[in-house]
Amino acid sequence: MKKSDPLVGCLAVLVAACSAGGGGGGGAPPVFNENGPVPPAALSLETVNGQVLVDWAPVSSADSYYLYWSDTPGVDPATTPGARSMPVDAPPAIVAGLSGDFHVVVASVDGEGQGDPSREASVAVGLTSPERYVPSWAGATPTTVLSFDYDNGKTQTQNGTALANMLYSLVAGDRLEIGTGRYKLTNSLALALSGTAQKPIWIAAKAGAKPVLTRDGNNKNGVEFGLGGRAQYVVMEGIEIEGGDIGLRLYDCRNLWFDRCEIHHTYANAIAANSVDTEFITFTRNSVHHTAGSGEGFYVGANNGAVIARYWVIALNTVYECSGIQGDGIEIKQGSYGNWIAENVVHDTNYPCILVGGTNGKQRNVIERNILYRSNFETLQVQGDALVQSNVVFDGSTAFYSGDHQGPAQNLVVVHNTFINDGTAVSLNQWSGKPGMVFANNACYSRDGIALRFGSGDSGVTVTGNVASGSVLGTNGGYSLGAGLSDFENASWDGSKRNVTPTFFGALTASGEEAWFELEDLNGAIRTAPFDTGAVDNR
Q1: Which candidate, 261, 238, 258, places its Cα nearest to that of 300?
Q2: What is the 3-state secondary structure (H, E, C) of 473-490?
Q3: What is the pLDDT of residues 185-218, one digit of tens each?
Q4: What does the alpha-carbon distance between residue 213 and residue 378 come to, in Å, rounded to a whole number?
Q5: Is the whole model's pTM more than 0.85, yes or no?
Q6: What whole-number distance in Å separates Cα of residue 67 and Cα of residue 379?
Q7: Which helix (H) or strand (E) holds 165?
Q8: Distance (Å, rounded) from C-alpha 493 to C-alpha 516?
Q9: CA-wise closest residue to 417 among 370, 464, 480
Q10: Helix (H, G, I), strand (E, B) or coil at 161
Q11: Are 252 and 228 in contact (CB under 8 A)?
């Protein structure tokens, strides 16, 4: 059922926890009545993060409803286990904890029992994290598993040289598992390894091991892929890279996956891919920190589209302590497109925690569900050609900034974010008159200054469903007023407290515009009407 009006009732969204093997149910279903109410019509399904939102047209003669579902088609209420059925007072309903395929019917219920079920509706359930981010070829099986252990009778340099030689010899289908030790590299480890989708190459830590690849000095990079030949279909997992000018540098690369690695204490960038076009690169669950020099955690693409990165996934990473003369956390340059930056935690950076340019009109970038705080510059900066949704952003010179940079601000949809800052929360320059500009359902909170500013006005911009606490400039509508941090469960201006769930009777609850809602909130929950403003739904 939908959330009730916060002034007259309590939050009432029914969530049934279940799984492919069963789960929570709703007790014994009502008896069948052949003269019962007509079945619901117009079933619709939306899915995200292991959940399905089931909606249908209400039946006037029904007092309530009963859902039945299965992971195979042909759902029959007479044979469906109780663990896969549940009562619902009114549409919609959310079924959670799912995987695989979802098939559902809904029966109407009155005082005499339930009537015939509806037509069956089906959907492939949206994946949960981290599965939603991994490459399509991630499930391939190695053909050969190799082992390399640190030799305590040799120096770090000798161990590093021996490991490097073994790495150079890997072929498609090999999985090399490396033991604990500090492997010192005397030169950049330049890997032009070529696997296939059916036979990738794995470079992995042994279970419970901590192999560290170290590189002294700033005259060589740590690890390089794609120099001297294309690198493709390679996985690096659980490897620590310490030092080097750039810790990890990508050249001619496609279909690489870096998972649960640590890259840190570099003399310049931690990760750079700014020399050759790259595509289908995935970074998940990595720790990237303590950079110097130019200082970016991720430096992806090159200025003015000179080098393009396309179809990258940067998700579930922690990036912090990015310093030096710039020190962005994650930077995607102008012209790069189709990239997905999601569920990262980025903090304590010199330049923006996340900085994304435009795509020059190509497939938009998506920046969603990131938590960003403590930047010496703008905390989040996005130029255009992007969806920016369900991010939480604190504490910078400005929490969120957008405007012309190496291209025009255009085709930018900014929805359901929470921006909190002691100074300016949101500054939008050069938006007036640009195509495809939307600023909707955002919480914009400033302690001492400007909550929301359109530097050149908002002509042609869709502005709706926002809540602002602080002064508002350059727009005459599209927002209501907030009451400061009391509108959140437990948030602070500096980001040290980051629970931005709306308080139930606060200004954010039920203030969003339905036309611009996004299905998934910061925590992976499905939003339900009436929609809350900001990154988190309070159900």
Answers
A1: 258
A2: ECCCCCEEECCHHHHEEE
A3: 998 899 999 999 999 999 999 999 999 999 988 8
A4: 33
A5: yes
A6: 45
A7: helix 156-168
A8: 27
A9: 370
A10: helix
A11: no
